[in-house]
Write the C-alpha cells for this entry.
Amino acid sequence: MKIIAVYCSKGGVGKTATSVNLAYTASRNGLATLLCDLDPQGASSFYFRIRPKKNFNSKKLLEGNIRQFIRGTDFDDLDLLPAHFSHRNMDLKLDRKQREATALRQALAPLAEEYDLVFLDCPPNLTLFSETIIASADMVVTPVIPTTLSMLSLEQLLKLCKKIDVDKTRIHAFFSMAEKRKSMHLDTIGKYRKYKIFMKAVIPYMAEVEKMGITRKPVGAVRSRSVASLAYERLWREVEQRGELR
Amino acid sequence: MDRTRRDQFTAVDGQQVRLALQQLEKSFEVKEATVLSSSESYYDTFGGDLYAAGYLLKKNTKKLALVGFDEEVIAAGTAAEGQHFFAGDIAEPELQQLLRGVAGIRALSRICSRQITREAYELRNDDRKIVVRVLYCYGTAAAGGREAQLQPLLRIDEVRGYESDFAKASGLQADAGLLRIQGQSSLDLALASLELPRPCYSSKYALALDEDIGLRDGVAAIGRYLLAGMEVNYGGVIEDIDSEFLHDFRIAVRRTRSLLSQMKNSLPRQQLVFFQNEFRWLGSVTGPVRDLDVYLLKKEDYADMLPQQLHRGLDEFFQELERQRAERLEIMKDALTSGRYGRLADEWRRFFEDDGESLPWPGGQQPCRPVARKIIRRRFRKIMKSGERIDAHSGDDELHSLRIQGKKLRYLLEFFRSFYAVDELDFFHGQLKKLQNNLGDFNDISVQLEMLEEYGNGLRPGSRRSLRIAAAVGGLITHLSQKHRKVRQKFEKTFSAFASVKNQKRFQKTLIE
C-alpha cells in the first residue's frame, strides 16, 4: 500500500480537485484506492456526497480506528474516509506518541491488505500535523499555481523537508490552474519546468473542474474523454511512474 | 477492499418484483441505472470440479470469466467456439493456470446456458448518494434441448459504510413477500429451473456392501455398480470429449474382469466363460487408444527430457501418434457401437436382474463376507510370497506380475471394504499404494520403452523427417532407460518397507484374523 499526500500549505491551488481526480483515475486503472479527506472543510467528501458517520472524529483517526468509518463512493474500487469538523484541531489532538513523524502511516497500516493506494487530501497549513503527513507519505504531490506566492509555498515545503529530515525526492510538483493567456503563468512554467521536481503534466485552469461543485463527481465520471479528464489521466501516468505504483 | 454484504431474494414472478421495487421508493430515491441483456453459458468438467472448488466458469460469446459464487470475477480470458475446450487451450496465463489446477486434463464442457436481462438500480439518500445497489435478473435457461423460465432474482448489495440503508432495503424485500435464498449460485438456480442435477461424478469406487449381504446379491451389486461406471462414461468415450472418459471406462472394465476372475468359483460356469471372453474383448478393443493417450498426455514431459534441437523431431513423432490415434479411435468406436457390445451390456444387466430361478448359482445364497475375506487372504499371501522371491537378478516380468497381483488385491479391497475395520484397511491401503506406485512407475517406463524401441525400429531410413524422429526417439530411450534403472533399484527397498515385520503383523491382524 502506497500513501500519496496531495499537499500545499497555500489554499486554493487545486489540492482537492487533484486528490479526487487522481484517486478516481487510479481506481479506474484497477487499483483499490482510499481517499482520506483530512481537510476539515470536507470538500472531497462533498464532491462524493459523503457525510461522516456520527461517532467519527479526529481522535479516532489518529488512533488508527478507521475501518468502520470508511464509506464506499459511487465508484468501484474507490472508498473515502470522510472529513470531520474536529480535524481543524488536529494538532492539539496529537498526543506524545502521535507526534512521532510517521504516526499517520502507523494509523493507516491496518488497511494495507485492503488498499493498493491511499490518497491524503491535506489541509492548507504548515503545522505539526503537516509534518506528520509529509513524513508518513511515500510521495507528496504538490500543485503549484505558476505564480510567485505558490512558488514560495514550494520553497517552504522543501525547507520543511530538510527540517524534518525527509528526502526531498519524495516531493513531486506540477503546475496547476495554469492559464495560457497569462504571461506570468507562461513565464513561470518556462523558467521552472526544467527542474526535476516538476512533473511534465500541466493541469490548466478549466471550468469543467470548477463545475465539480455542481456535478459532485470526478471530471472523468462526468465525461471520460473530456479535456480535464485527459489532463488528470496524464498526471496520473506520471505519478504512477514516479511512484513505481505498478 | 472490505467485503460488503449481499442478500438475494427470489420471487414468484416479475410482478412481485416490481411491487417490491415500488416499496423501496418509500425510503429511497430509486434510479434505474442500466438494463443489459446477454446470453452466457456455464462450463465445468464432467465431475463438476470447478463447482466443487467454488468456481463458476462462464462464457459470453468468446469471453470467458471465472467467477466465485458471489459472481465476482477472479480471472478472465477468451475461448474457442464449441461445446468443449481444455484449460490448456486458453491463452491467458492466469486463467489457464487456475483452470489447470482444478480441471487438470479434463475437458470443460457446456452445462447449460442462460439468456438473461439484468436491470440495475441505484438507491440514493437525500444527498443523492448511492447507498444501496439492487440488481434484478430474469430470463430463461436452456440445456440439452430443454428450456425453462428462470425464477426472478433480486440482489441487494451493500455500499460500504451504509449498513443501516442496506438493512432497510433488504428488510423491505422480505416484507414484500420475496423469499431470501442463501448459498445458491447462479448455476444452481439455472439448473433448478431446468430440473437438472449439477455435474457430479467421481471415478473413485464408492459402493459399500451390507455386512450380511448374500454372495449373489453382493456380486450383483458390484457388477451393476461397475456397469453404471461404464455407462456413465460411454457417451464421452464415443464423443471423444477427453481422455479420462475412456480411462474410467476401462477401469470399470478391468474391475469387472477382476471381479469375474476372483469370483470364478462362485459363478455359474457357462455365464462366467461368456462374460470373461466378452470383457476381455472389451479390454482389448479399447486398449490401443488408451495406450496412445498415455503417450500424448506425456508430451510436455517428453519435451522436458530432450534438448531444444530435438523438439522438431519430437513434434513430428507426436503428429504421427495423433494420426495413429485417429485411426484407432474409429476402430474402437465401431466396436463400441456394434451389436456385440450392445449384447454384452444387455446380457450383463440381465444376469444381475435374474432372480436366480432361471440361472441358478451354486452357493449363491451363502453370506458374501467369509467368501470375500477368504479370497483376499489368499491374494495377500500370494503377493507376499511373490515379492519375497524377487531379488536384484529377477526379470522384469516378475515385477509386472507382482503389480497385477497388487492391482487385483486393491480392487478386491475396494469391493469388500465394508467387511473390514476401516482405519486398519486404510493403513494397509496406504502401504500397498507405495508399493504399487513403484511397480506402476516401473511398468509405465517399460511399456514406453518397448513402444519407443518398436517405433524406432519401424522407421524407414532415407528421409530427413525419419532422421529427426529417430533422434528424438533415441533421446527419449536414453533418458527413460536411466529412469527405468533407478525405479528398478528402488524396488527392493520399497518392498522391504511394505513387508516389514511390524507391517506384516498389522496386515495379518487386518486381513487374516
Q: What stands out?
A: DSSP finds twelve helices and eight strands in chain A. Chain A touches chain B at residues 32, 48-51, 53, 67, 69-72, 74, 77, 79, 114-115, 216 (CB under 8 Å). The radius of gyration of chain A is 17 Å. The longest strand of chain A covers residues 171-178.
